[in-house]
Design a protein that fits this description.
This protein is of the alpha+beta class and 412 residues long. The protein has a single domain (17-410), classed as Cytochrome p450, CATH 1.10.630. Helices cover 49% and strands 10% of the residues. It is built from 15 helices and ten strands. It has helices spanning 17-23, 27-35, 55-61, 75-82, 92-104, 108-128, 135-151, 160-172, 179-203, 214-219, 231-261, 263-269, 273-286, 318-322, 366-382, and strands spanning 39-44, 47-52, 67-68, 132-134, 292-297, 301-303, 306-308, 313-317, 386-387, 407-410. The strands form three sheets. The protein has a five-stranded mixed sheet. The chain has a three-stranded antiparallel sheet with strand order 4-10-9. Strand 1 and strand 2 (47-52) form a beta hairpin. Helix 6 crosses helix 15 and helix 12 packs across helix 13 (273-286). It is globular, with a radius of gyration of 21 Å. The structure holds protoporphyrin IX containing FE (HEM).
């Protein structure tokens, strides 16, 4: 093959943001197929953008000599989903230091603890509610309570509803346009200001919080220069824990959709931890959630003969890589069994980003997510008497994230 300089295959047109809204999770796959290429150039939000797909492309994307994250994400995402000044937009030593703070919260004991909290909260929820349970709505509340308890953010019993209703627009509505998008922004403003106040109170000793928990830890965390973080940054990072824990509700809703649609696989998952683990991995591979990760080119470089230009926004297709026929047999079939053979490559199965946790930007909460899914699946399959009513759940591939809206009936 001729690896001399070539331009990245380019989609012509002024801007393709509207197609992204229409095609959703298929946007990059469609272009990759059309141009028969693992990298395609398009234009999004008025900017030249590279789209990458597949395992080798993921290895490239997570090479920190080639890509950086500072202000990589569009401002609309920073004002809603991510916040400004958080770990997602850091590079180099600053990133490593901040990321180590997140990873230090994910000890075996603390992951075990969050599993028992989530079980308690499910039990409390089911005891207090009527027979019919809307999974997504219930899970958001259960997870908000869990997140507040686990992080040690001071809150009253009756506040959890309010937290849940403000945390969920951050991920449910961030990618929407119009009033929903504004709701997402407004929720972030309110939550950041609420948390900043608490940070100041802890620092001036007018509020006491549990010392072994994440909130205390982040409030007193020192950066690589030995300085405390700005209270606003503390708020952003605490929301980087609370928001995605509540967002696990999306995966829990998909778990029930999978139980509904694949009863044989669900029956198998009753048997033990490993069977459930494979079921959960397949839920995270098969269903769409986080569409792509975003970075920018650090300096001009060549890859497979293509020239990448400095500063260009670059998207790595997470959904597309998880459905890449070069990596997965029958990628559009739900088959938990495939994970018996998966070797744990950090770049082929990337629902929560790829690469390393410590030096790269792979999701800090991946183990926590899997643990919460495991304990919830076990709880409902083996300890709760419930049935799935006849329903026609559906979700759209251009809703980010899609919510199937499952219902279950509890038989007390
Ligand atoms: C609900 C399911 C979740 C999904 C689908 C998800 C997905 C992701 C993705 C795609 C990234 C970005 C990867 C990249 O930029 O390369 C990420 C980063 C991150 N996630 Fe998650 N996540 C989830 C749950 C969690 C949880 C439960 C937590 C914390 C308790 C968490 C904390 C973080 C943090 C702090 C980052 C930034 C890491 C960095 O920039 O170094 N996530 N997540």
């Amino acid at each position: 093959m001729n690896h001399s300089h070539q331009k990245v295959p380019k989609e012509i047109g002024l801007d393709h943001s509207l197609e992204l809204l229409k095609e959703g999770y298929y946007f990059i796959m469609n272009r990759s197929e059309k141009f028969d290429s693992r990298v395609v150039q398009t234009r999004l939000l008025g900017e030249k953008t590279y789209c990458l797909i597949g395992q080798e492309a993921a290895e490239l994307f997570y090479d920190t000599d080639k890509f950086f994250r500072k202000e990589a994400a569009p401002v609309v995402a920073q004002k809603t989903l991510l916040g400004m000044g958080g770990v997602q937009g850091l590079d180099g030593d600053e990133h490593r230091h901040r990321k180590a703070m997140f990873m230090s919260l994910m000890t075996k004991e603390s992951l075990k603890e969050i599993q028992s909290i989530v079980k308690e909260e499910w039990t409390r929820y089911l005891e207090a509610h009527e027979k019919e349970v809307k999974v997504f709505e219930a899970a958001k509340l259960v997870l908000a309570r869990t997140a507040l308890r686990w992080t040690g953010v001071p809150s009253h019993e009756h506040d959890a509803d309010d937290w849940a209703s403000k945390l969920s627009p951050l991920f449910e509505m961030a990618s929407k346009v119009g009033p929903k998008h504004l709701k997402s922004r407004w929720s972030r403003v309110q939550l950041e200001s609420r948390l900043e106040k608490l940070v100041k109170q802890v620092r001036n000793r007018s509020l006491d919080v549990e010392r072994h928990r994440a909130f205390y830890h982040v409030v007193w965390h020192r950066d690589e220069n030995g300085e405390l973080l700005d209270p606003h940054i503390v708020a952003v990072e605490i929301l980087n824990l609370l928001r995605p824990i509540v967002a696990i509700a999306v995966y829990l809703d998909f778990i029930f959709l999978a139980i509904n649609d694949y009863p044989k696989e669900a029956e198998l998952a009753k048997q033990g931890y490993d069977e459930r683990h494979r079921f959960i991995q397949e839920v995270r591979r098969y269903y769409p959630f986080f569409p792509f990760a975003i970075a920018r080119v650090k300096k001009d470089f060549m890859w497979k003969g293509y020239t990448f230009k400095k500063n260009t926004m670059t998207l790595l297709d997470l959904y597309g890589t998880n459905h890449d026929p070069e990596l997965w047999d029958e990628p559009h079939q739900f088959m938990p069994k495939r994970f018996e053979k998966w070797e744990g490559n950090p770049f082929d199965f990337i629902p929560q980003g790829g690469g390393e946790f410590d030096i790269g930007h792979r999701c800090a909460g991946e183990w926590l997510t899997v643990d919460i899914m495991q304990v919830t699946l076990d709880y409902f399959l083996n300890h709760v008497n419930y049935e799935l009513p006849k329903q026609k759940p559906d979700y759209r591939m251009n809703d980010i994230p899609p919510i199937p809206g499952m219902k279950i009936y509890i038989k007390h």
